[in-house]
Structures are given as structure tokens and as C-alpha cells.
Amino acid sequence: MVVYTTAKCGHCGENWTALSPNAPNTVFGKLGPPVIRCASCLKDNKTGYKLIRDLNPLEKLLYVKVKNIFGIIFSLVFIAMGVYTGNVVAYDESIKDPPSYFYLAFACGFIFFGAMGIRNNISVESDLDYTQELFDKNGGFVWSYEMYGI
């Protein structure tokens, strides 16, 4: 299920993102910069997020490691379903009509989405580290355009 998020400044009401399925708070949970500064009114907005360095060991395990492990397992299941579907279609002598190409495309789709899931789960910590670097570079906040890309 996709969660569409709208983020805006709590002071001036400037929209930073509208109905975005990939807004940072839906991707990472409650991990991110604790302060986002609006590029329009230059006021700070407290988010309630935590930087990865501010998590205690249990939170780090739950928020980052367990999500990564489940994400990678889920991705491997997709790859296995793709390989299985591809093998069934390739070695089954009774399936030699044009719909078999549909099954092969379906198998390739499973493998592709599984590989993308593994790639995304591996890069989560580097994305969080980048947000932390921005927070430190700016002096304790992240600009709204850096966080939401506007």
C-alpha cells in the first residue's frame, strides 16, 4: 500500500511536497533530521525525527537492521519466485504457445524487483548518513529543499 504524504512549513504554510509516495518520513520511518528549515520563511520546523547517531542500540537494531533484514529476505523471495517461474516455463514441454512469453516477462519482473529491493535496502544507511552529514554541515538543521527536493 502506498502512503501519500504532503509536507509543508508549520509557520508559513509553504508546500515542500504534495501527495508524494516517496517522502522521507514514509521511507525511513522516524529517522531523519530533527530540524528542517523552511527555504521561504527561514524558520525552523521541529520534526520529531532522530538522526541515526542519536538512536540507542535497541532502536538502531529495530529501525535499521531488522527492516533491512526483512527487506532483503522479501527481495530474495521475489528473486526465487522469478527463477522458479522462469524454470517452469523454460522446461515445461506443454507450454510452447505465445502466453509463455508472458510468463517469462513475469519472471524477469520478479527478478528485477527483487534486485532493486536488495539495492535499496543496502543503500538505506548511506542515505541516512548523508542526511546526517547535511545536518552537521548546515549547523543543526536541513533545508527544506535538501530534504524534499524542491
Keywords, please?
150 residues, three-stranded mixed β-sheet, 5 strands, alpha+beta
Write a structural description:
- The chain has one domain (5-148).
- The chain contains four helices and five strands.
- The chain has helices at residues 24-28, 57-91, 99-138, 144-148; strands spanning 5-8, 15-20, 35-37, 44-46, 142-143.
- The chain has a three-stranded mixed sheet with strand order 4-3-5. A two-stranded antiparallel ribbon has the order 1-2.
- The longest helix has 40 residues, at 99-138.
- The mean pLDDT is 79.
Question: How would you summarize what this structure contains?
Answer:
57% of the residues lie in helices and 12% in strands. Strands 4-3-5 form a three-stranded mixed β-sheet.
